[in-house]
């Protein structure tokens, strides 16, 4: 009887040892989970204490909106430069006038946005230059050339009347004024013979620039001499 009681007691002790071995890991898991909870709660508290903290996800919508706005302006500009089928030049001018009435600085930024789109066409590329009827880049390059010809220098036009300085800021101001005038010119033009609108304007601008250059090269006071008919002979 004593032997049976001893065996039973030994079996109970062995069972208790095994059960404690299984209980210990679960206890450690509870401690680990509680430590994770405390860490996450401390992080959330730190974020709440610093409201200036922003994630990349919160910034992405504004960047996407800017990209969409740039794409829409680029599409309007390309249609206006080509054949202006959708009357896109008028939409660009309406946007510009609305911004000028509400926020002049925003209007300047709007013109700078168009200028940046035009400047993107001047990057060096190994792709051969195509006709303005086939290539969007060619149309933008053509517009850039028109602006180069029509943008006045510091001693010409309104800049000369206002004694405008010849620095980078003033040059950008003159470039924006020339762009606004060019947009109005595009709005008044219509394509003829399949030629794109910007190509027609470029030809006229280059021809006018050559005539003006020749006139500027003539010395002051030089005039074509006049002749009087003294006598006529019969053939």
What this model shows, in words?
- It is a single chain.
- It contains 8 helices and no strands.
- With 235 residues, the protein is mostly helical.
- The longest helix has 48 residues, at 2-49.
- The model is unreliable at 1-7 and 18-61 (pLDDT under 50).
- The chain has helices spanning 2-49, 56-82, 88-102, 104-119, 136-150, 157-161, 168-188, 197-217.
- It is 71% helix and 0% strand.
- The radius of gyration is 39 Å and the shape is globular.
List the helices and strands and how they pair.
Layout: H1 2-49, H2 56-82, H3 88-102, H4 104-119, H5 136-150, H6 157-161, H7 168-188, H8 197-217
Helix pairs in contact: 2-3, 3-4, 3-7, 5-8
Order of helices and strands: HHHHHHHH
Principal-axes shape call: globular
User: What is the terminal-to-terminal distance?
Assistant: 167 Å
What is the average per-residue confidence, as pLDDT, rounded to a whole number? Answer: 74
Radius of gyration: 39 Å
Count of individual helical segments: 8
Structural class: mainly alpha
Helix fraction, binned, reads: over 70%
What's the story with the biggest beta sheet? Answer: none
Low-confidence stretches: 1-7, 18-61
Total number of beta strands: 0
Task: Tell me the fraction of residues in β-strands, as a range.
Answer: under 5%
